[in-house]
Design goal:
By secondary structure, this protein is an alpha/beta fold. Helices cover 48% and strands 20% of the residues. Strands 6-7-5-8-9-10 form a six-stranded mixed sheet, with helices on both faces. Strands 2-1-3-4 form a four-stranded parallel sheet, with helices on both faces. Bound molecules: guanosine-5'-triphosphate and magnesium ion (MG). Magnesium ion binds next to helix 7. Its main location: cytoplasm.
């Protein structure tokens, strides 16, 4: 397992809670990128020296790297190229900042080709200024090419620029295909529910609480189904639930598109659950909600958003009432849950149900034949079969979307007309 040392440089003016929650955020990010966190270091920024890391701290980091065998030093704070270079050299360990770490996570979460290209584009944008600096250092006859910086040739910068322009062209072409996907999905009649929300809000916990464990999602919708999509049922209706990568505040501009493309599933959803950690101080809740709204507004077309206030087990009834009223303008009619304790889940499911397209209920008569049987089994897949009887024909009481009922009715008519319906389904 890859080992990482985390460094958080405290803002002297920032309150303690803020500083420690940043370190916690970095730790969770590192873990979701697959690192084992071997040590955590904090440093209070010296306002006079601004972003310089002192000799003492660098020595401390070198010692930790040597003792723990860490493969990476990860800073919460954004680092300049020269800082990355200097720290990598001194500590003999690859050094990255939070944004590079986030990029690593996006790379693992990117499922669609479009998302993968966006992530690659962001990586190249991150690399480009690095390449420029290295090339200029090389020209000064210094030869860095070490650790976090890699070894660079003179042509490297040019290669990056070429690749960036090729990716941009390719992405422009893909945008159109992608927009067609939503239409295709609707024609197939699937309802998808997507989980969105700030990182650490409890999306994945809620995901595991809601889905039918061990139920494989049938591979009918996507060519490769993401491992974070599973089925679940509400009042007999089968739905798909998708977990997504969490929102993070203050993303630099070169990361935003990569981030949005990992949310492609949200763009395809019929209902969006916006999960909020309601146990946090109200100012932080508001700030995170605004960040989520900004992104969602652009991304979605007309899907309803259900606000889900999670982690209520952590706060008193009184605090909850107070917070709900303070954030009401951002989260109207929220559903209150505790994902880890499983409370409020049924209410949430019923709320989701209220947004689903209405299905028709019909009594149908089908022939006892291969085609009749296959239609009946198709109805089990596509709708809710309330009752089925086998006499000289198959009597089905079924609830399903319009297209399914209409197709089945066409076959029923054939039964009456010819006695031998063709297998049309
Ligand atoms: N007390 C309490 N803790 C919870 C609840 N739901 C989730 N947590 C905890 O919150 C932390 C984050 O939960 P996750 O489900 O991983 O959060 P997430 O939104 O998927 O986070 P990202 O994947 O990083 O975006 C975990 O330590 C959970 O155990 C809850 O209802 N109550
Ligand atoms: Mg998660």
């Amino acid at each position: 397992m890859k080992k990482a040392v985390l460094v958080q440089r405290n803002e002297p003016e920032s309150e303690e809670y803020r500083n420690s929650s940043r370190l916690q955020e970095l730790k969770e990010l590192a873990e979701s990128a697959g690192y084992l966190v071997v040590d955590e270091v904090t440093q209070t920024k010296n306002p006079d020296r601004n972003y310089q890391i002192g000799r003492g701290k660098a020595d401390e980091l070198s010692r930790i790297v040597a003792e723990t065998g860490a493969n990476k030093i990860i800073f919460y704070n954004q680092l300049s190229i020269m800082q990355i270079y200097n720290i990598s050299q001194t500590c003999r360990c690859e050094t990255i900042d939070k944004f590079h770490l986030i990029l690593e996570i996006f790379a693992t979460k990117a499922k669609t080709k479009r998302a993968k290209y966006q992530v690659e584009l962001a990586k190249l944008h991150y690399e480009l200024p690095k390449a420029k600096t290295i090339v200029s250092l090389l020209k000064k006859k210094e030869r860095p090419g070490f650790m976090g910086l890699g070894s660079y040739e003179d042509s490297y910068e040019k290669d990056i620029k070429n690749r960036i322009s090729r990716l941009r062209n390719e992405l422009g072409r893909m945008q159109k295909d992608y927009e067609n996907l939503r239409t295709t999905r609707h024609n197939k009649g699937f309802s998808i529910v997507a989980l969105a929300g700030y990182t650490n809000a409890g999306k994945s916990t809620l995901f595991s609480e809601m889905v039918d464990e061990n139920v494989e999602v049938e591979n009918r919708l996507f060519t490769t189904l993401s491992p974070t999509t599973r089925s679940f049922q509400v009042n007999g209706r089968k739905l798909l639930l998708t977990d997504t990568v969490g929102f993070i505040e203050d993303l630099p501009h070169w990361l935003i598109d990569a981030f949005k493309s990992t949310l492609d599933e949200i763009f395809l959803a019929d209902v969006i659950l916006l999960v909020v950690d309601v146990s946090e101080p109200v100012e932080i809740i508001k700030k995170k909600l605004v960040a989520c709204h900004d992104t969602l507004w652009e991304q979605i077309e007309d899907a309803p958003i259900i606000a889900v206030l999670n982690k209520v087990d952590r706060i008193s009834e009184e605090d909850l009432v107070c917070r709900i009223s303070e954030i009401e303008y951002l989260t109207p009619n929220p559903i209150i849950i505790s994902a880890s304790e499983g409370t409020g889940i049924e209410t949430l499911k019923q709320k989701i149900f209220s947004y689903l397209p209405v299905w028709k209920r019909k009594d149908l008569q089908l022939p006892i034949s291969d085609s009749g049987m296959s239609i009946a089994s198709w109805l089990f897949d596509e709708g809710i079969v309330h009752n089925i009887k086998y006499t000289d024909r198959i009597l089905v009481d079924v609830e399903a979307r319009d297209e399914v009922i209409n197709k089945a009715k066409a076959v029923e008519r054939e039964l009456h007309a010819y006695g031998h319906p063709k297998n049309q389904l």
